[in-house]
Design brief:
By secondary structure, the protein is mainly α. The protein has helices spanning 13-22, 30-49, 73-84, 94-108, 117-129, 147-154, 172-179, 190-195, 199-230, 239-243, 248-261, 279-282, 284-305, 331-359, 382-398, 420-452, 459-471, 481-493, 496-505; strands at residues 3-6, 25-28, 88-91, 131-133, 136-138, 162-165, 168-171, 314-316, 321-323. Strands 4-6-7 form a 3-stranded antiparallel β-sheet. It has a two-stranded parallel ribbon with strand order 1-2. Strands 3-5 form a two-stranded antiparallel ribbon.
Length: 509
Amino acid sequence: MEKIVINGKDLTIEDVAKVARCHAEVEISKDAKEKIIASRKLVDKFVEEERVIYGITTGFGKFSEVHISKDMTKNLQKNLIMSHSCGVGELFDEDIVRAIILLRANSLSKGYSGARLETIETLVAMLNKGVTPCIPEKGSLGASGDLAPLAHMVLPMLGLGEAFYEGKKMTGKEAMDKAGIECIELTSKEGLALINGTQVLTAVGTLTLYDAIKLSKLADVATSLTMEAMGGIIDAFDERIADVRRHQGMYDTSYNVRAILEGSKNITRQGELRVQDAYSLRCVPQIHCAPKDTLNYVKSKVDIEINSVTDNPIIFPDDEAVISAGNFHGEPMALPFDFLGIGISELANVSERRLERLVNPALSEGLPAFLVKEGGVNSGYMIVQYAAAALVSENKVLAHPASVDSIPSSANQEDLVSMGTIAARKAREIYLNARKVIAMEMFAACQAIDIRGDKGLGKGTKAAYDEVRKVIDYIDKDRVMYFEINKAEELLADDKVLNAVEKAVGALK
């Protein structure tokens, strides 16, 4: 099994996916351990001296004015976790929870937060031994970190709350005991170090970004299948078109579609069937460009955030300084994750428009209405397009930015909050909707190819078509369609289509 060594400096989104979904083992680097120990020694010194330092010898938020004696610091930290466990709603999926734990451990391993080594090692043990805390999705403002959901992450460490172990939900204490992990007692600064950070919103956004990068390539595959079905004009994907505008996403999209369609006998050149295609085909290099460039921008921010200290106060052992500031604030990621959702929604918007061209006899260049023979008796793909339209309309609502909203909290001490966790969760929901829409286009295009008559598919489209046809047959009369939609989406979710296409044509961009 692959091992991911964390040090707070070079974690990648691929590493996060490996730990979250493939259960790669995690280990703290030797250098990180030394930094953690040095930071902790300084916290202990400050507590012993009873210095007035936020969150160490004071209360939290508005209660920062209340001094806490050193003999009460353990109670302070435990009470913090219990009182802040106010999450509501459905639980986060296991992969997201694992990503949350990994990102928090990675941030703490930088050695600026003052948590004990054994506390961080407990987080790592939960990952390696499969204890997954029950963390509700809702309740974070993305401001003083993800306080409520991260408190739920900590509860099982204290023998409290609930967790999953080996697929079963149980008390946090039972899960820790069954996994052979000793519960801990928090000491000064540790409760705050564990929950005052952006790791929930960042975990959700990171996994969504990871998936969206693949979806942007699958959108090019779906486009290529529709091009095959519609006799699409390949000239619009000429690299020289990108050369005179020079957006990277245009180069990438045009390259992908040309590679996927290489060898196709179904596509055309301008003037052979028609002078130019509608925007949903002709302008794909420009339309897909924007989401691809959006993803690259968001990735640049995620790469920074997953290796950042988002705590308060921050401990600087080299000069024995403690600074109370605002690194916990989610604003630097709230806007990118809103942007992420908007970008993904556009991939679905144009996909649905291509699907409409496939099923609409006024637009489909001679294909039968709704891609079925004996129309009237059969409705064919009519309601597939309805469902896609519903999803893209829902995405338009979800794409409204969360980050433009704010509501004061903690007696107005925290008077502008980011709503970054809502932004990330919305982006995730938009992604799931978009994946369904692109799957619908893909399997409708395969139906259209069969009806039109295949003169010879391109290398990449042949690979994609074959994967679809392994699980979805040609539809000659009506059947229960949601089964087919689900099968098509699973091909995208399981990477079967993308892997098959990249095996045929090489890595897509």
